[in-house]
Amino acid sequence: MTKQITNIRIGIYLCDCDGKVSKKVDLNSVKVAIQSKAEFEYIRAVEVACTKAEREQIVAEIDKYSLNRLLVAGCSDPFIVRQFLQLADDKGINRYNVEFVDLSAAESVGAAVSAVDTALNRLHLRAEVGYEELAVIPDVLVIGAGSEAAAAAKAIAKNQPVVQIDNVGTRVIGLDGFPGAFTVILLENGQTVKKDFGAIVLALGAVPQYDKSKYGGVELGADVLSLSQFINAGKDYAGKKVGFALGKADEDSLLSFAAVLKAALDLKEKGASEVSIIYEDMKICADGLEQEYERARKKGVNFLKYTGEFQITRFASGIAFMYREPFLADPAKIVADYIVLAEDFVPAAGTLELAEIFDIRTGPGGFFQKDNVHSLPIRSNRAGIFFVGSCHGPIHGTDLYNEIEAVLAEVSAFAKGKVSVPSLQPKVEAEKCAVCLTCYRCCPHHAIEIVHGEEYNNMYFSAARMNPLACQRCGVCAAECPGKAIQLPLYSDQEILFEVQQPARIVAYACENSGFLASEFAKTLDPELQKDLQIVEVPCSGKIDIIYLLKALENGADGVMLCVCHKENCKFVWGNDRAEQRKVRAQQILNQVGLGERIDFVHVAANQGNQFNTAVKAMAEKIRQSGTNPGKVVK
Known about the structure:
The protein is an alpha/beta fold. The strands form 10 sheets. Strands 13-20-14-15-16 form a 5-stranded parallel β-sheet. Strands 2-1-3-4 form a 4-stranded parallel β-sheet, with helices on both faces. The longest helix has 18 residues, at about 575-590.
């Protein structure tokens, strides 16, 4: 359990928000009720806490009463929240020791007191969160030989040292360590060498590949070229007729469209007699492409829309497209000297090998990066390893430079050789750690190492340790630990179980990345629906322990919901899968004691308020049919 902090000095500020709260609740009565039973250092009711004068007075009171934790109850305006967090930072109060309570929805003094009391108890239970200053390596490794890798390396080199390798002449064969201190094992000229880097950027690019099955089996030759062949040929096409075909390959990116527009303009400027582009849908939705399209039209490039399939036929005097135009009854034909066909893009050689070495996930088409909204566009499942460019799917122009800027912002944190980070990673009580490696195996981010020393007070003189830069703070390890040796700051077992000491009729454990946001949206759609519902926010559904489900029922809930990310879309890779396994086990226990189906597992995205409300109604109906929970403990 979380250790109690003895020197806790809490200041409570009850804000009337310029009269908005007092329309429903008398703040002085709230203050008197809290004073009669709560443990704190100082309390004051204010008219408008966010004015400059009030903030200055709060600053003075922090000094006068030596306050080290703050509770601000009033409205939930994000701007005001940021103001108070900044005030706390300026006064040396850790922002994780500041709690906010929204009193705007309180209908009575009792409801307001209960909300403040709950937040106050959270502050008392909260473990101290400090900051760690860590030495890091500023050097960055960029892997890739093409223009995308060169652009990334050039941008990063303005701030810190960069090494770029092609992964052909010099290859990666192994990786150890954590962000800020990776050790990369390289094979150079037949010799194995180790080099240290703070971060790694993968920019292998993508490789064009001609698929003749998409063009009716047409073979490439002197007069039929793939787009990459045409671009690399460097021939003189003055006086020639050239036709381009788009839409049968590379349908999901803009690379081929951008390349064809550039090539068409170049041909017209160099004297080609006729340039035609046939297309199904002209994709020009990127910076500069629409202007290129307009320039091409003005230069005389023919843009011809087709529908369905087209045929490529060779004649003695040339080659032709036979296609169907959407608004003409008869088939149309283009005769040309050369026909150029768009290609698909596939991952560069070495992509799969690097994915295995780095233990990072691939997605559609075998490219880097799982198709996960939480990771896009540059993040991998391992902190400190990033993607740039077409190594995670073909991208074009502005998108590439936006990604480079995003990666630059991430790796530049290491440029000075040290970083300061909040100590929010899970903490291990060594005396409880059996070094069973459960946490090590279940961590989706390679954030855990086993450390050794006399200071670890157990029979192995060893314990698990979570790296503060690699850890994503999902809490999966804490929920999986069979010895309960791991606790996650801000979401300890003690804090979460406190939330369900007196639960509502339905308790919903909700992932902060999906279910919790959906519940907030759902309130705006049907505020009445959540009156008998209690939301308990967790960092990831992977943190939801079996004991949380059973304790909520034991303490009086009639039903429990787990509101999690959709399949294959968990920010923490497999947190929702782990949660589902625990739900199944908890339900098995309930079935064994005859309590029936009282746990629901709900996949919901952050913007699915209606789906959230539908799930709540379904849970309420299940409870109505099953009746009141006979397993609750009456206190």
